[in-house]
User: Fold this.
Amino acid sequence: MRRIQGSTVSDGAFLLLFIACFISIVFTAADPNLYIQNIIFLNLAFLIAVITYFTTVTTGLMLNIVFVFGYGTYTLYRTVVEGGLVGTQNYFWLIMTPVFTIATWLFTLANKQLQTENEDLKKANASLATMDETTSLKNSLSFQNDATVFMALSVRYHMPLTLLVLSVKYWDEIRRMISEEKLMNAVHDLSQISQTSIRTNDSLYLLNRDNPTWGMLLFTDREGANFVIDRLKSRVDELNSTEFAQKYKVELALKIGAIEYDKDVISTPVAFIAQAKKQLEFDV
Assistant:
């Protein structure tokens, strides 16, 4: 509802500004004898509107007060001292200049509101999203939800549960050698390798995309996880001699840490990840 209101105000303010410009241009061109004077007032109105856009409505209103006071004084002087007549010309710009300011302020206010709502939606989407858009893998939020369930199943049915955490060796050095696009392609390719190296009832997660870290939840014990580790490293070594060497011009290697779930030691999914990451230090 707020987004619809912001859009309506923005559209209304833009239409008002457009109509004000049209009326002012027609009025300026209507009397050739006052053409220069009207052009000056039109430029002043636009100038105050632009200042309002980049500052605040308070500044715009203060400038309008100065304009009205100055123009009113000038009109009074011409009427009293020079005997001039007060006509449409004298009232038009006293009305139109504040109209330009108000229309610009409403347009700016609505746009800022829409920008704020857009940022809020992006943050909400990022916090609620359970899948990485680049690799189509489940993310860390999804891992926490799934790990909680898997840990409970492991305890209830006495099934071994092992978490593998994978990262790329020398990633900081590699990212200085290849472009951002190739970095994302590397993350995608490694994700595909990891995905094809596990069983359908096991789960793969991209825990961190900036410093690529994957997590695998395997319904197996620590010894059984070694088969998956060997399969992953063999697959990456095979591709390093063919596809990766040609595509990225660097060698990609995985560091893998594994920890079997123990309810007495690991109480939360975050602790599960932390324990698995500690095992990465032993894979050099």
